[in-house]
Design brief:
Layout (H helix, E strand, L loop, with lengths): L5 E2 L4 E3 L4 E3 L7 E4 L13 E5 L3 H8 L5 E4 L5 E3 L2 E7 L7 E7 L2 E5 L21 E5 L12 H17 L3 E5 L5 H8 L7 E3 L1 H12 L8 E2 L11 E4 L15 E6 L6 H4 L6 E3 L7 H11 L3 E6 L4 H9 L3 E6 L6 H8 L7
Parallel strand pairs: 3-4, 4-5, 5-6, 10-11, 11-18, 12-15, 12-16, 13-14, 13-15, 16-17, 18-19
Antiparallel strand pairs: 1-2, 2-3, 7-8, 8-9, 9-10
Bound molecules: zinc ion (ZN).
Length: 342
């Protein structure tokens, strides 16, 4: 069997094609699976990503980065390695990377989810011999509810707050989560505001043809209607101007809200379990569907239970240390403590 990918101190590397996937140290040539900061880093000489990631990456990393955008399912060749990107369903432009060489196929999932969020292209199952997969939520306790139920819960909470004359504040990942929320808010309840940097991302997405409802940029020094909902960054918790909008109720939307310790933190009043990653069942299903028997788990959360399950079910499994953080960084900022402390 060919070792088509190496796990190096700079990141996931294909020596035959001489190209890295989501490197965390600067390299000459990088394929970027998606535009979240833990996967897309500054300093690489050249970038390649799905074309829908290009405007986001330019916004985040600089207008003048050298970047090539490709379509899904359009293979290109690097020194005999056939490489193609396929929808990962995680956020706009997110891609799995498929590499084929001498009849053997490896797939790197990047971050992914199986359910259709209505904004990003839905996940495409791929067959492969070796799978390198995200395993952020690789514990059986992580089981997502149907997303409409979660959106209904959020809207009911907002309605209740507006009846109680409390402003509603929701914290979620700036790119991906926030747009999902925005698309499902019941606008008849009240006006929706967003933090300036969230609205800037929204605008980057709208400019590339993604339909997102209009929102007003928040200025906390101005009077906010009592029935308003604010889509915010975690930093709002520590901002002194938040006092100006009292009374308010503050919620976080993340897969980590499954953990009681995360929901009960004093920084938030409510936790909604909503994730752009695969849950336990989706992880198992996605591995089975690939047909791969050799699995590498890129560790950005809980991988040891999933690793054990795979080993017990006859898979050849290896956990790989990476610098990917999944949703952890943002949620830790919200809670003010490390996720491992729950
Ligand atoms: Zn991500």
């Amino acid at each position: 069997m060919i070792q088509l990918l190496d796990f190096t101190s700079s990141g996931i590397y294909c020596p035959v094609a001489d190209i890295y996937i989501d490197p965390w140290k600067p390299v000459d040539r990088a394929i970027i699976t998606h535009a979240h900061a833990d996967h897309a880093r500054i300093g690489n000489r050249s970038y390649l990503a799905h074309k829908d990631s290009v405007p986001l990456l330019k916004y985040m990393l600089g207008e003048y980065i050298s970047i090539q955008g490709v379509e899904y399912n359009e293979p290109f060749y690097e020194n005999g390695v056939k490489i193609s990107l396929h929808p990962a369903g995680h956020i706009v432009g997110s891609a799995q990377v498929r590499l084929e060489y001498k009849g053997e196929v490896w797939v790197v999932t990047g971050d992914f989810k199986l359910i259709d969020d209505g904004i990003s292209r839905p996940f495409e199952p791929l067959k492969c011999d070796v799978l390198v997969t995200d395993s952020t939520f690789g514990l059986p306790i992580f089981q997502w509810q149907p997303q409409q139920l979660v959106f209904d819960e959020i809207n009911s909470w907002w309605l209740q707050n507006s009846e109680d004359k409390k402003v509603s504040i929701v914290i979620g990942y700036t790119l991906g989560k926030t747009q999902r929320l925005l698309n499902h808010l019941e606008r008849s309840i009240g006006p929706v505001y967003a933090h300036g940097s969230i609205e800037t991302i929204n605008q980057v997405l709208r400019n590339q043809g993604i339909n997102l409802p209009e929102v007003q940029k928040i200025d906390l020094k101005q009077k906010v209607d009592r029935n308003a909902l604010i889509l915010a960054m975690p930093s709002i918790i520590y901002s002194p101007v938040i006092k100006e909008i009292q009374p308010y109720s503050i919620a976080a939307a993340s897969g980590w809200m499954t953990l009681r310790g995360a929901r009960k933190t004093p920084n938030i009043d409510r936790g909604f379990v909503l994730s752009d990653h695969a849950d336990w069942n989706q992880l198992m299903l996605s591995v089975k569907e690939t047909g791969a028997k050799r699995i590498f788990l890129t560790n950005s959360g809980y991988s040891s239970a999933f690793s054990r399950w795979l080993a017990e079910n006859g898979y050849d499994v290896t956990e790989v240390a990476t610098k990917f953080t999944g949703e952890i960084k943002e949620i830790e900022e919200t809670l003010g403590v490390g996720v491992e402390s729950f």
